[in-house]
């Protein structure tokens, strides 16, 4: 894609594409993640792992209300733009990073409920891809099934991680008691 300033010859060139993006909304989303998204989803949910799933339920409620036409605004734009300008790409990345950091904090706050060797940030990225992929497929199919399937599999994985951690602790305590 060719980028140019407004010039008379560029307007006549059919190979030049102009993209106008209002980046002010990116800053609003980035700075508003807590009051606009996290706080409403997390109120009355003290458990850090359950907060992750409460946030996903919040996205599901958007899908329900919109009859599966809802799309995460940042995710939708990231998918739409073939090759965004570096400043736009940086704002998209900052928005995703804010979401990932919030979820990573939940997994960190879960403490020893998750195995020590689990990369909490990578698990947060997995949660983001679960949400974005589930929303995208639900929009395409006009059905909640893909979103619900994706969230169910993430829940299954996190539950298994917690189970593995509990099994590991039981194994350690049984080894200590036989000594």
At the fourth level of CATH, the homologous superfamily is Tetracycline Repressor, domain 2
Instruction: Enumerate how many helices there are, as a single number.
Output: 8
What is the CA–CA distance across the termini? 69 Å
What Rg, in angstroms, do the CA atoms define? 21 Å
Per CATH, the architecture is Orthogonal Bundle
Question: What average pLDDT do the residues reach?
Answer: 81
Element-by-element helix/strand order: HHHHHHHH
* Shape label: globular
| CATH topology name | Tetracycline Repressor, domain 2
Report strand %.
Answer: under 5%
Describe this structure in words.
- This protein has 179 residues and is mainly alpha-helical.
- The chain has a single domain, classed as Tetracycline Repressor, domain 2 (Orthogonal Bundle), CATH 1.10.357.
- Helix content is 72%, strand content 0%.
- It has 8 helices and no strands.
- Helix 4 packs parallel to helix 7.
- The chain is globular.
- The termini are far apart.
- The N terminus is likely disordered.
What's a concise summary of this model?
By secondary structure, this protein is mainly alpha-helical. It is built from eight helices and no strands.
């Amino acid at each position: 894609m060719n980028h140019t300033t407004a010039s008379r010859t560029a307007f006549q060139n059919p190979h030049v594409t102009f993209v106008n993006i209002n980046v002010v909304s990116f800053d609003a989303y980035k700075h508003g993640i807590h009051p606009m998204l996290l706080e409403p989803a997390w109120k009355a949910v003290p458990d850090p792992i359950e907060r992750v799933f409460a946030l996903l339920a919040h996205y599901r409620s958007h899908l329900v209300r919109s009859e599966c036409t809802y799309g995460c605004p940042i995710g939708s734009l990231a998918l739409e733009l073939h090759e965004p300008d570096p400043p736009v790409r940086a704002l998209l990345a900052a928005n995703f990073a804010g979401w990932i950091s919030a979820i990573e904090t939940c997994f960190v706050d879960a403490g020893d409920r998750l195995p020590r060797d689990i990369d909490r940030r990578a698990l947060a990225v997995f949660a983001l891809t679960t949400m974005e992929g589930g929303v995208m497929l639900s929009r395409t199919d006009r059905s909640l099934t893909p979103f619900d399937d994706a969230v169910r599999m993430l829940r299954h994985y996190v539950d298994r991680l917690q189970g593995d951690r509990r099994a590991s602790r039981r194994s350690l305590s049984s080894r200590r008691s036989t000594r």
